[in-house]
């Protein structure tokens, strides 16, 4: 089944304790992206990657890191989490077309709480 | 920066009533996509509009793209409880890459049986 898999789905952690949220897709998609969703703020892009070894900042990259060493994986790293990073996180992927737009497939989401 | 404004933020309707959500961009869009997120779920693609003035229908859902390609709407006729969720539009600027897809803040629809 074509899908985007995120882990963990739920996590409660403490301020300053490094964590990684993994994201993997099995559709051979070039494009991958991370979003955070907060009430009243919609989906805000954190980082995205157009292909292996190519990453770019989105709208809210502060406090986050990413890497794209393999096409299928795009982990989100919080080096020193803070309470304002408590949120629902979504990973998404798509093909990259010459027209510049393609359908995003989202993962199920990772709910992170930082105490 | 470029924004896609979506209104209303919330909409409460009685089952059977119609519902419309609107998206407006400050710049001309190459295309616009619509997604639906059920409560507790993740966004799921509904449709993509590319042409000026385009209208597409999916059963009770009607999607429109404005003539100037700066606005779009989603209209649901005779809402059902299964329509509950948050509807997002996402626009792409001309010349923009997939990384520049801009999401509206969404409209949360609740339907009272």
List keywords for this structure.
heterodimer; A: 115 residues; mainly beta; seven-stranded mixed beta sheet; four-stranded antiparallel beta sheet; 11 strands; 0% helix; 50% strand; B: 113 residues; six-stranded mixed beta sheet; five-stranded antiparallel beta sheet; 57% strand; globular
What does this structure look like?
The complex is a heterodimer of chains A (115) and B (113). By secondary structure, chain A is mainly β. Helix content of chain A is 0%, strand content 50%. Chain A has strands at residues 4-7, 10-13, 19-25, 31-38, 42-51, 54-57, 65-66, 76-78, 87-94, 105-106, 110-114. In chain A, strands 2, 4, 5, 6, 9, 10 and 11 form a 7-stranded mixed β-sheet that branches. A 4-stranded antiparallel β-sheet of chain A has the order 1-3-8-7, with no helix packed on it. The N and C termini of chain A lie far apart (36 Å). By secondary structure, chain B is mostly beta strands. At the A-B interface, strand 4, strand 5, strand 9 and strand 10 of A face strand 4, strand 5 and strand 9 of B.
């Amino acid at each position: 089944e074509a899908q985007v898999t995120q882990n963990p789905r739920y996590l409660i952690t403490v301020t300053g304790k490094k964590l990684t949220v993994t994201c993997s897709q099995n559709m051979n998609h070039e494009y991958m992206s991370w979003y955070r969703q907060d009430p009243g703020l919609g989906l805000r892009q954190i980082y995205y990657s157009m292909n292996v070894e190519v990453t770019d900042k989105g709208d809210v990259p502060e406090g986050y890191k990413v890497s794209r060493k393999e096409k299928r994986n795009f982990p989100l790293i919080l080096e020193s989490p803070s309470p304002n990073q408590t949120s629902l996180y979504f990973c998404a992927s798509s093909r990259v077309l010459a027209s510049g737009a393609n359908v995003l497939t989202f993962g199920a989401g990772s709910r992170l709480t930082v105490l | 920066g470029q924004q896609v404004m979506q209104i209303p933020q919330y909409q409460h309707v009685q089952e059977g009533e119609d519902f419309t959500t609107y998206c407006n961009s400050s710049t001309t869009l190459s295309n616009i996509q619509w997604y639906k997120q059920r409560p507790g779920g993740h966004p799921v693609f509904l449709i993509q509009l590319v042409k000026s003035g385009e209208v597409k229908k999916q059963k009770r859902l009607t999607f429109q793209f404005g003539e100037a390609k700066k606005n779009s709407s989603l209209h649901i006729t005779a809402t059902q409880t299964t329509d509950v969720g948050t509807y997002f539009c996402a626009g792409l600027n001309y010349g923009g890459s997939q990384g520049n897809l801009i999401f509206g803040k969404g409209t949360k629809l609740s339907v009272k049986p």
